[in-house]
What does this fold into?
Amino acid sequence: MSVPPHLLLPPPDRVLSSRTGWTRAHWEALADRMLAGVAPYATPGGAQYRLPGRHSWSGVQVDGLEGFARTFLLAACRIAGAGESADAALVERYARGLAAGTDARSGESWPQLTDCSQQMVEAASLAVALHETRPWIWDRLDSAVQERVADWLSGFLGARTWDNNWRLFQVVCEQFLASVGAPHRAEDIEGGLDRIEDWYRGDGWYTDGDGRNFDYYIGWALHLYPLLWARIAGEGNDGGRAATYRERLRLFLTDYPRFFGADGAPVHQGRSLTYRVAALAPVWMGALADCTPLAPGLTRRLASGTARHFAERGVPDTRGLLTLGWYEEFLPTTQPYSGPASPYWASKGFLGLLLPDTHPVWTEHELPLPIEELDEDGESRGRARWPRQCTTLTAPGWLLHATRHDGIVRLLNHGSDHNPPQPDGADPADGTEDPHYTKLAYSSATAPDSAPHAHARGIDNHLALLAADGTPTRRRRIHPLRCADGVAASWYAARLPGEAEGDGENGDRAGATCRIETTSVPHGPWEIRVHRVEAPQGYEVREGGWSVAATETPVGTTGPGWATVRTADGLTSTLVALHGWGSHPDARIARDVAANAFGPHSAVPCLHRDAHPGGTAVYVSLVALGREPVHPGALAEAVRVSVTEVGAVGLEFLDGRVVTV
It folds into this structure.
């Protein structure tokens, strides 16, 4: 694909950047286009940017503040990165906005910080931007404006934040206040930094608050803000904490490039995905903090590949704006707190501009991503893993399953559900279900069917029992069992759907619970799923494979025990029955519209068994997502399945590999 001309980017440089063609000049041009795009939506004093689009639950005033603060962070990267060549008009634009936003007489002043308010999020962007541009903006502000800005930020003192990454907003804001001699509370700073220690899970992984909250917030918040705090505090003033944060980020970045497909797309998992290139924040911070394990050429190749991926798909759009969605506007990708300017947390993805143009990340030749270095036998050059093409991430309970020939990364999810911890004795079925957390798998080439009408059906990447009216069981809370040696397993419990007791054919089963355990075994380009279902007799069993979406309706085909769907560009999702689905497995295609972030038409291959036999039964399927032609009938012969009387499942692959589940 090519970058749309409206972005006004320089010609590609295939000598320095053989894989993406992008250089620092491309990043600067993209930042300039985005800053120009929001300019027409500024209020008269420049304190708010009221962008078009759906408003958040915080209201127009806070949405306008968000527009200022988040684009100010982008402007800060551009100003500080340019140094003596900084654009004077850009400096003046945001200095003027700071004055108006803190002046109650301006008619566009910012709402005061209150406990757990959205203003806290935006204040953190202001503090970071003010620190990074201090010689150009803060030091030149009128003393009265400085006092007003400090007074507004001081709303954090002693305030209560949400008990997750928000604790760090308070940390960086009060550290900035300390750096300019304004009142602050050291106990707020120390308390926030102490709190994130409770969330560290090892190997570079945090959870975002209590529970199993693993997503991109780990990189663009939990790793980012502690090191931004250290930059504000200054060398020697961090109490030794910065060394710990640098080492943790180094560990995190060791495998982080494996979340990105060969086309630059990040794996589509978690909340706030509309922030898009913010996923690059920890990559740039590794270079800024001099703690990255990544070679400079790999850092730029990863970052430029991702920015180019979105640019080629119309992000930003012809107005120069970022919309609420992934590529085009798609509101189910967002949350109620997302306003029109929320996507501009993407500014974190431009932190690399703070590095001088002489830094090796800008001057060295690009290097390939891990997925581009997979040998034909599936092993990564210089770093073989078992099983082939698979990275085990024990802390979040994930397997990253990559294939070089199609450039796709798949995340097999047996550990992240975005639920708070349960007290002892609680119902294991209790919890909330979010399609961006509770699916069995996510990838760099697909998104879950997440629109409310599609989510209610709960088909893609999920195994469910169905009531007579089609209501499915829900994988609300994930209970991890295993994530090691390239195999991962978990279970979920659900209250079975059915009519009220005594009514209808399901009446005697209403209120019962089931237990569904799933083990994922990736092999080559495939995943084998072994499901153990414990439930009363009679419920229909349904499994869905990957949902693929496009502007045109995907083509679907079914056969004996298999179903496959294919988009016009060749992306193919296949599901094959291997065991437990009966002598004549029922394969179907489920279609939807306006359900998926990747396109208006989506389709999912499905398997159905009309009635669970009761007690414990084993269902085994082969799940495939790729771009190569598929012969589903032959896939049924790719692995031999055996099930013992005690329920052990043996998988024997054609290449001789044997796995016992």
Notes: The chain is about 25% helix and 20% strand. The radius of gyration is 26 Å. Residues 60-82 form the longest helix (23 residues). The chain has a mean pLDDT of 94.
